[in-house]
Amino acid sequence: MKHWTKPLVGIMPNAMCQLLTLAGFVFCLLLFGFSALLMPAHAEAEKPTVLGARVAGDDARTRIVLDMDQQVTPTISGLRNPYRLIIDLPEVVFKVPEDAGESGRGLVSDWRFGLFAVGKSRIVLDLTGPVSVDKTFFLPAIDDQPARLVVDLVSASAEDFSTFVEASRPNRSTADKKTDTKTDRLAAAKDSDKPLIVLDPGHGGIDTGATGVAGTLEKAIVLDFAKLLKAKLDESGLYTVHMTREEDTFIPLAKRVQIGHDLEADLFISIHADSVRRGRKYARGATVYTLSDKASDQLAEDLAEIENMSDVIAGVELQEEPTEVTDILLDLARRETRSFSVYFARTLVSELKSAVRLINNPHRSAGFRVLKAHDVPSVLVELGYLSNEHDEKLLISEEWRERMAGAMSEAIHGFFRPRLARQHVTPSQ
Predict the structure, then answer these.
(1) Topology (CATH) of 49-169
(2) What is the pTM of this model?
């Protein structure tokens, strides 16, 4: 300790020197420590905060009020089919009750809020009919009253709302849409490359997905599980694994499909944990879904309808999809892709049987939009159903998730075993 410093030696006794030096060192540690603790809090405080939100009015005029701690500039737009009003904000902190928005008033039937993308928050209001934005203004804080963002809506004609939608939404140029005429990718040998897998945790951001009996959010459960599965696959060293999202952000369904296509994925696995009924009882057990034009059963049809509403929930403009395949090569690629998808689904079900509980008839099919890539074998896996309290407990169990991830890893190894064998690579057991 006596060698920490030398300038004071000779001016005062060594003991005093050492004491002051130690005191200075401790002071610096405390100073830097407190600074480090304060920085994250300060950064969080810089984000605008929504302190309260409410809707008032009637079928002729309705007012939306957001209590804010600082001024923000909203971007307001509309969507048809169904009628929705979108309020986009810079990323904000919502300090409002979780059940806020479950019921509306006047021209607003209900509304939801959350993170839409990095740096962007969104409020989506479901409307009872066409509206017009009468005025938008911001009231500064006065005395003990917070600042307020106010949006006034009035009833309008369908024609007026359509005009508003067109003016408020940027025009989408078909020239900007990425097209790819390559239809024979699946037949091309890529033995020199690692198989590329895309894991797709469902929902995210403003779209929370299902909510469990005990309040578990689907978007959080599936993201955690996807990260666990990715870690296991990365550990094998056999694959290149990508995720459609790695944090709590919303990804439109078409973008999820496009990610798999653009990466030229060899397998696309969408991961969910929904809430549905089967007859009078809640569904329970893991299920594997593939794409089909006609649903295999009522449960599959109901689930596909729920999942395909994800973009509507988040306030995304729905794009019309072609109903017919006119290119014969594209049609052949789609058929081949579906065959690979079904093969992997059967492989996965076979592995899951010995690891976790499955629903009756665990391989089902329906028209899931997220599975519609024509050149990427794709399946949707329901880990379980949050509407069932027993499934919910399993979904948050580390031991169960380890078993599930292990079984899915083995199924992936089995699916790619012929290709890995050609590359002289053997999956570790």
Answers:
(1) Immunoglobulin-like (2.60.40)
(2) 0.81
